[in-house]
Amino acid sequence: MPETPGGPVRTEERDAPADRQLGPGAQALMRQNFGNIGNAQFRHVAAREIGAPHPPEVTEVAARTFMIRPGMANVALFETDEGLLLVDAGCAGDGPALLRAVRGISRQPLHTVVFTHGHVDHAFGLWAFLEAGERPRVVGHENLLAHYARYARTPGLNAAVNGQLPGANGRSWPSAPEDFTVPDVTFRDSLELRLGGERFVVRHAKGETDDAAWVWAPERRVIAAGDLVVGYLPNAGNPRKVQRYAEEWAEAAEEMASLGAECVITGHGDCVHGAEPVREELLTMAEYLRYLVRHTLDGLNSGLRPDEIVDALEVPGHLAAHPRLQPHYDRPEFICRNVIRRYGGWWDGHAANLLPAPAGERAREVARLAGGVGALAARARELAGSDLRLACHLAEWAFLAEPDSPTAQDCYVEVFDLRRAAEGSLMGKLAFSEPHRRVAEERAKADG
């Protein structure tokens, strides 16, 4: 293992936690979405000692302009006569490899770092540069500090949602003051930087987060977009995370499209090259997001319940077929629900669900009416071949009615394994893996 600032970096483990946790093919989907992501780092994204499995990929996308992929997220590097401008710094474990990659490109001092947002895969690798003696100016949006504060308040929640394990410091998620790099300069709407006589414009946009920023280098015709552009359907609906901003995301895409950029360095995945492909992708993304928002608001204004709005969604063919807007991570249905939450609150419109009976009590009554847990499980398996969505409800009722029943446990796992295998989005696969965890907990209790 190579020695680096902060100690040795562990790389790829032989097994595949993503496949074990999310089902066959999940590891390949992770790599499709996130590139240089390893099995060890998949479960330890906040650990400084655990890096990606392969050396960073470095691509010169324009003169003195580079996309670096040190791990699951991309980093942009602009070389100027005055020093380097780095946009993002990857996961904590990416820091040492990113430092080596940058120093393999240029010996210019690291002048400025811009964080496009405060997510764990974008703003936590700079420590390696700081420990090596670099002293850059760090820039972030003014909401970045509140983003850090949310992380510090909810480490257990984020570790559970993201399936994280503790690193060498005992933490599974950033939460201690030393985990965070606080910006020296913050801004509200826009900030103009000048390096080596060259102009760089940092713009705020709400999208995946409320602290998002992107960088426009007009003399190079290059945008460093962070997670506002990722090469798949925007993460604007995540069912287990804080509010996303589909409308403002569309506005940011339209603003970027108006600039005549010839390259977009994305937050994940491959760059976009060529003025027309850049413009087409950005405008189609904006159209897709605006369609989902309009569909949702039309439904809310017509008095439809959330389920009715989502069930009625039909994405136009030219949007659904776009090769760089596929639902590999998020889903359009989830984006609708995120818009519903933003404008209409969390209640689903069904009166019994406002202050419901406990889920176990409801399931036991359903099982009693059905003739027992065995009857529910049998019908769930029967339905699985023709209506998998409906089968999942029956399988879950059987488990909730009798969590210690082997019949219910087996059915719960089997039916949701089928659902997970058929699901194309990473978020969906993660949610449909929940029965495995819950059944494992019940069996562990039974084993004492």
Can you summarize this structure?
With 448 residues, the protein is an alpha/beta fold. It is 42% helix and 15% strand.
- Radius of gyration computed on alpha carbons: 23 Å
Tally the helices: what do you get?
Answer: 18
- Please state the oligomeric state of the protein chains shown: single chain
Spans with pLDDT under 50 lasting ≥5 residues? 1-15
Strand content: 5-15%
Strand order of the main beta sheet, please? Answer: 3-4-5-6-7-8-9
Helix and strand composition category: alpha/beta
How would you sum up the major sheet? 7 strands, mixed
- What value does the average pLDDT take? 94
What percent of the residues sit in helical stretches (DSSP H or I)? 40-55%
Written overview of the protein:
The protein is α/β, with parallel strands linked by helices and about 450 residues long. About 40% of the residues lie in helices and about 15% in strands. It has helices at about 15-20, 25-35, 40, 95-105, 125-130, 145-155, 155-160, 245-255, 275-300, 305-310, 315-320, 330-345, 360-370, 375-385, 390-400, 405-420, 425-430, 435-445, and strands at about 5, 5-10, 55-60, 65-70, 75-80, 85, 110-115, 135-140, 185, 190-195, 200-205, 215, 220-225, 265, 270-275. Helix 8 (about 245-255) runs antiparallel to helix 9 (about 275-300) and helix 14 packs parallel to helix 16 (about 405-420). The longest helix has 27 residues, at about 275-300. The radius of gyration is 23 Å and the shape is globular. The two termini are about 40 Å apart. The model is unreliable at about 1-15 (pLDDT under 50).
